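TOKENISED FOLD:
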Amino acid sequence: MAADKQNEAKVSIMDENKENLPDGGLGLEILQIIKESQQQHGLRHGDYQRYRYLLLVLMEAERAWSYAMQLKQEANTEPRKRFHLLARLRKAAKHSEKLEKLCESPQVDAKTKLEAQAYTAYLSGMVEFELQKWKRAMEAFNKCKTIYEKLASAFTEELAVLYRQRVDEISPNIRYCAYNIGDQNAINDLMQMRLTGGGGGMMAEKLEALITQARTKQAATMSEVEWRGRTVPVKIDKARIFLLGLADNEAAIAQAANEETKEHLYETLLAECRDTIQAVREELKIEAKQRERSSDADSGKVSNLQFLHSYLTYIKLCTLVKRNESMAHTLQGKLKEPETDESKRGPRPQDLIRLYDIILQSLAELSTLQGLEDDHIFQKEVSLKTLVYKAYRCFFIAQSYVLVKKWSEALVLYERVLKYAKEVQSKAKSLNNSLKDLPDVQELIAKVNAEKYSLQAAAILGEIPSQQQAKDNTPLCDRLETFRLDPALVGKQPNLVQFPPDFQPIPCKPLFFDLALNHVAFPPLDDKVEQKGKGGLTGYIKGIFGFGS
């Protein structure tokens, strides 16, 4: 009976797990994994005990830990799974403690003993971290960090990189625990880790929540914001928190260590901005209903809440422009690099054209913001930026035509780029510092001039038969008027004439048709034809029956 119940439980677990499987099913190279594990963990030297005990317990711990991490992801939408998460983490920690006890055997070397202690400390710290027991979690993580640092200094560089990587992973956890214990300086370290791309995994969400919490405390002191010469009160808490963190977010983007981190920070800023705009829109709906009821005389004037919405939309659109400009700058650098792998598709000018299309669309939306229709300086600045990005878009359209050897079209587009650039330079004189944050137009003009000369040379060379055209099968007798280097002519099979020759048309035997017959007039023969008498109907009948003959 007990065995039957156990089998039923296994079947139910399997049925439960089927729902989480991908469509293609899970794959596992069982024999390959078994052989590799046996060779790496003792069986090469006949050490079955090492393979049987240590590796088995380690895999049990990893299995429980990986399940806990899966539940960690799912707990964002299903909070009830957090209890299951804690149970699996505790189970992983118990397996690691068992592994540490097994490693106390004199047959186990010192390095393995230290790694087992560090692994146990790491999983124990994870459990305490989730339980928010910050002091105990920090002690466990510090123990883990100390062991790995000592191992990194004692072994080869290849192993040291692995140990240092683990230290970098747990450092944000240590600083987060320190902050919650009461170390106010730890927040600065966490912010710096965020800039360098640290604090991933479990720490990412907690770090964002910590930053939001710190900004919420400061939001109480913020009551208004000034933009385009107008002071607007900020009464929505979400808007206060976002505007307080705007400068920090922009500084973080400017100091990002790599493009991947920068892109992540841009996405985070845009997500926060969209949420804030949505909160303001909800308030705008309430305000619109109140205006309808009160029939306010100043209903045509842009309210403070509408102007705040325009400001937040301005921030979102400007951030979109900067993000796409950053991506375009990265792609321009990759375009200059030679392609090392022909099987992989490299960047093309068409990719940059799409980015500049998005930038121009954002600028078009900027010019229609409520409350800024009569701000002529703002409209001129947007118009100037539009001309700059139109020039860059036109430049890369010309580049795409160059790739397909459409020289005349590319040349016309280069002339248009110069027209846009000169127009920008003439308009920028009336607007001070308008080109400060924009791509360099003078550099674009220099590029266009250089490309024009290259284009003219390429067009001239394109009219001369290239060396690659010598690979066709035209025999020598048919191209005597054209000079071409053809090494095959001095080889074993020179292509001199075509053999067998092509069929030639020859004249066939003519066919004669009497076409003149229809145009010949024959002479009259009436005098030679016997004239018969005209007897009328009676004569005709008599003739039939033989009368009168």
Q: What stands out?
A: The first strand starts at residue 224 and ends at 227. The first helix runs from residue 2 to 18. DSSP finds 17 helices and two strands in the chain.
